[in-house]
Specification:
The protein has 21 helices and 24 strands. It has 607 residues and is of the alpha/beta class. It is globular and about 75 Å long.
């Protein structure tokens, strides 16, 4: 309700990008959400991806980064993961709009005859469908409270001027007029490059970008300029003059030690005042004029001060692009910060530790094994296809035999079972039917409800319940001795239930199963300091200050802190409440660390 007593109207913040892609629109949109939430507003988010795919499920991680999985089974863009982590919300598959979804919905209506003989066109039918989708999804509660949010933050993927995004820009131009001036705020993220020869901040790219934006019927309220340092005052004045944006509404998104600083960076430049003013929100009850970001500021500063490293080797297929494992990296970071360690990630291409590489490229082979053997813990993430599988099996074997803390996720759990069957049960041909359909020892088999002809949306997806079978197990203790846990899944293959008894007789323990008892969800090696595999993806529900239980266990084991954690029978989720314990005033501040505090050996690439 507003002060006048009438029903409140939904407010919309649109974030667009110009000049080049990869400016950080997703993190900016997430930080804007944090800022508004800190002002006492309820926030939801929508990501628009102009590609023709129905969803992100069939795209290679090299194409578009990781596929993020939601509770409802939606396979979506990784930016929805940023929204969920920053805002601590649970989104739905409809919060990710794609060209494929919109056109499919319109064509389905046309086939049903809903358009009553009209010629179906981009304008008005596609543009109307986009606007109706936004209005419908914005009303879905995502924060666990009843009723719709106060503000919906919309991120338009791609760059202004892209051919594929034209229907969306047209629809959003109409939408801004439809909802009214006091209910719509446009924030344009652009680039202000610095030419090294003269050291001058150049405004021309942003000027052209804003001109293109205006020609499409969209007028920016706020300019968020990416640059290496804060914008000089004369540069702000120039942008204000040529882009018709007040100087106080031009903010700089300059480089910061880690992305948890971004909400504070926006607040310090009074971005919230520009947004609240554009949305006519000061008239709302309980809207704070000054956002409370104490928890975010404390966490960001604490992360900067971490000095004692913990090295985790990630043995995967897509190690050339860290965005392929973005949620996994965030989960490792959340856990390491909670345990007061500086995360160092060593990327190990799985195929590089295979015997074939030793023959063809011995230098890459030696370098990969050196990284693996120098790590405090080993993590094998999920993946599809047979490339690098034997390398992952070798990594699991190394961790098992040398008692190195190990966490295998999805395929990582499956290869741990295969390795155990080969090494301990003596089944040398043990394999997954995904990689060897004719194996005589199928440790991993195709799920009966899957599809081998249609790849999109045909896996076991979304939140499913796992019931603990052994309460005295590490996994059960890490999850707080609960009887069950709900985690997100994305897989077509699973451990063969016919081989479970043989594996357990040999020492493996399946400590978590589904409600039928036929699906293996968690596997442990009780005789090992920390050797756990999960069929589900625990990284998707990790949050800053609320680390995933099994990632926390991995980092704790890698640091020699697992026993105190297990004896406590609970996870220190309340890092925000304990943050004052970390601020002892005598910690040395590290001068400059990569974004998110994640160090990487991958040519400086970090998450």
């Amino acid at each position: 309700m507003n002060k006048g007593g009438g029903m409140k109207k939904m407010k919309y913040v649109l974030v667009t990008g110009g000049v080049v892609s990869g400016l950080g629109k997703g993190v900016t949109a997430s930080s804007i959400g944090v800022l508004l939430k800190a002002c006492g507003l309820r926030v939801t988010s929508i990501k628009i991806d102009p590609y023709l795919n129905t969803d992100a499920g069939t795209m290679s991680p090299f194409e578009h980064g990781e596929v993020y999985v939601l509770d409802d089974g939606g396979e979506v863009d990784l930016d929805l993961g940023n929204y969920e982590r920053f805002l601590d919300i649970k989104l739905t598959r409809d919060n990710n709009i794609t060209t494929g979804k919109i056109y499919q919905a319109v064509i389905d209506k046309e086939r049903r005859g809903d358009y009553l003989g009209k010629t179906v066109q981009v304008v008005p039918h596609i543009t109307d469908a986009i606007q109706e989708w936004i209005e419908r999804v914005a009303l879905i509660p995502v924060d666990g409270q009843p009723g719709p949010a106060d503000v919906c933050v919309i991120e338009l993927g791609g760059t202004i001027g892209d051919i594929e995004s034209m229907p969306f820009t047209e629809a959003l131009g109409q939408f801004s007029y439809r909802v009214g001036a006091g209910n719509f705020c446009l924030i344009h993220v652009s680039l202000v490059p610095v030419i090294s020869a003269v050291g001058e901040q150049k405004t021309k790219p942003t000027q052209h970008s804003v001109r293109g934006l205006r020609s499409l019927g969209l007028t920016p309220n706020i300019l968020a300029c990416r640059s290496t340092s804060a914008l000089e005052e004369n540069v702000k004045q120039k942008l204000s003059q040529f882009c018709h944006v007040p100087a106080e509404n031009i903010i700089t998104l300059y480089d910061v030690p880690n992305i948890w600083h971004l909400p504070s960076l926006l607040r310090d430049q009074k971005a919230h005042e520009g947004i609240l003013g554009a949305l006519n929100l000061p008239g709302f009850v309980n809207v704070a004029r000054e956002p409370n970001l104490k928890e975010w500021t404390s966490r960001a500063e604490f992360c900067d001060k971490l000095l004692e490293p913990v090295r985790i080797a990630v043995v995967g297929k897509y190690t050339g692009l860290s965005d392929s494992y973005l949620s996994l990296l965030k989960a490792l970071l959340h856990a390491s910060v909670s345990l007061r360690k500086k995360l160092v990630v060593d990327w190990v291409p799985a195929s590089d530790i295979e015997d074939e590489t030793a023959r063809e490229n011995p230098d890459a082979y030696k370098a990969a094994w050196k990284l693996l053997k120098g790590a405090d813990g080993v993590l094998v993430p999920g993946g599809f296809g047979d490339r690098g599988v034997e390398g992952k099996i070798l990594a699991a074997k190394y961790a098992r035999e040398n008692r190195i803390p190990f966490l295998g996720i999805c395929l990582g759990m499956q290869i741990a079972v295969i390795e155990f069957a080969r090494s301990i049960l003596g089944l040398q041909d043990a394999n997954s039917t995904e990689f060897d359909p004719d194996t005589k020892s199928p440790c991993v088999v195709f799920m009966p409800e899957g599809s081998k002809t249609h790849l999109g949306g045909t896996m076991r997806l979304g939140s499913r319940r796992t019931y603990f079978q052994v309460m005295d197990s590490k996994s059960a203790k890490l999850y707080g001795n609960r009887g069950f846990v709900d985690e997100r899944h994305r897989h077509r293959y699973e451990v063969n239930p016919d081989m479970v008894s043989s594996l357990e007789d040999a020492g493996l323990s399946f400590t978590g199963k589904d409600e039928t008892g036929q699906r293996m969800e968690i596997v442990e090696l009780p005789s090992h300091p920390y050797y756990i595999g999960t069929q589900f993806h625990p990284e998707f529900k990790s949050r800053p200050g609320k680390p995933s239980a099994l990632f926390l266990g991995l980092i704790a084991a890698a640091c020699g802190q697992l026993d105190p954690l297990l004896h406590a029978h609970k996870i220190p989720y309340g890092m925000a409440k304990k943050i004052s314990l970390y601020q002892n005033g005598n910690a040395t501040k590290f001068a400059k660390i990569p974004a998110d505090g994640i160090y990487s050996n991958c040519n400086g690439v970090h998450a």
